[in-house]
Amino acid sequence: MKIWTMTSSIRKYFNTGKRSLYLFVIPITLYLIFFFLYPVVYEIYISFFDFSLGSPKTFVGLQNYVFMAHDEQFLHSLVTTVIFVVSAVSAELVLGLGMALLLNHESRIMGIIRTAILIPTVFTPLVAGLVWKALYHPDLGVISYYLRLLGIPIGRGLTVERSTALFSVILVDIWEWSPLVAIIILAGLKNLPKEPYEAAAIDGASSSQMFRYVTLPLLRPVIVVALLIRSLDALKVFDIIWAITGGGPGTATTVANLRIFQVGVQQLRVGYASALSNVLLVISVLAGVFFIRALYSREYGGVQ
Amino acid sequence: MITPTSRLRGSLLHSARILAIVIIVVFELFPIFWMVTTAFKQRIDMFVLPPQWIFKPTLANFRYILSTMPVGRWVLNSSVISLGTMALSLLLGVPAGYAFSRVHFRGKGVLLAFILLTRAIPPVVIVLPFRVIMQRLGLFGTRTAVILIDTVYDAAFTAWLMSGMFASIPVDIEDAALIDGCSPVQVFWKIALPLSKPGLVTASLFTFILSWNDFLFALTLTSPSTATLPIGMLSTYGILKQGWTYMMALGCLAIVPPVFISLLLQRYYVSGLTFGGIK
Fold first, then answer.
1. Are residues A295 and A67 in contact, defined by beta-carbon separation less than 8 angstroms?
2. Hey, are the CB atoms on A183 and B278 less than 8 Å from each other?
């Protein structure tokens, strides 16, 4: 009886107004606490231990972090990550902007092209990586064949030479994601107001001046969002590098993600890998905060 | 005034434009073209240089992979994981998105920030502790483990996307139904959900594709019997050595669902791709 009145009063509470909608966020909250927050907290905790899978863990304090500061391989992988993200994303922005301007015409053929160039973005990244690996193959690859035919020196092969390996995986990222930037900018172009152009035309602006002083500033918010989405995702790159070079030759294409995977999953040094992960965690949380602030401050997306 | 030189300049610019578009299309589509043609080539044809673009197509590669590799199991595993992730993500994310767009509560900002942060955290960071947790729960090596970690990212994505979609539905209709005596849950179920079909389509196809294309989580959490298509494809790499024709045939099978779905529902795909930014 007592329980019945209690549940009925709870029911009455939730039926008033829209309070019952609070219940809608409980499942996802619990889910994220258990499967997202808990792993992250556990990882921070375990980074203070010497812990290899299958053996007991011992508390070592900051030893993992001290070791990390002298870990040439990891520090090098951070540098590689920065080079990868900065060059891939800036090339994608430039190329994506170019694509958007070229394809910004309403016609049947343009519509088909806009659709077709989106295919790389939906391509299973590992499959894309294996395809490019074959194309880059030093002896039998189509790319190697044509480059040699053109008389371009590629040494033993683009992915085999230390000097070109990183560039060759960056090119694949550019291939995969420039169309995304183009689509975001195309949407921005479609929503541009007409008035500034009319005013500029009256003032006698040339088409290149219009682009420089009207189009680009108006597109800025859209470009910022594209930049952030791409930076966050480029920071996560794993599949294509894994497929094409596996991080080699040597450590030429080993980005931080790959290094952490090698230490944590292949060498099973979970404690140390966790310490390395935390560096990446801090970097990506900072990048994520920028992303969130940009989403909230620009007129973009569904933020109320 | 149109002078002959300016006309010449105009047509030159036009040609340069077309040339640039052609280069872009070739750059973006050549690898895909190469994969598909290689999948239909005889093994001898594929090592011929210069590459032969006209050749007698064969289905032998598909026949070979289907008869010698557990392709059916890989497809089944990929499908179960993708559909499971999709269902669980919608179940968790859609109601949450609705609540975000309709009510204010304490901690809402924190929760939203948390949801967006999932987008920023590299999978490799979370997969290590996740693996330890799955081992403790006895779920390591199961498809469930992959569904659970895929859902972290995909449910968050769905909640974010749907909150934007629901926000664009006018609340007037819902308020009228509330006054008529519907409970908020009924309003959600009978009015808001049917009105937000585009969002639901976007969320479904995107969670499916994200999960289908996953490699890292499957690599760290599956066992041979629960391997997905990308893992299967990778496992053949060593065995087949230069067996590109077989591998590309496998690749064709792997990319059919995501490419087909995204082309068929292109508008929704673009919307998901831009995090709900383009509706």
1. no
2. yes
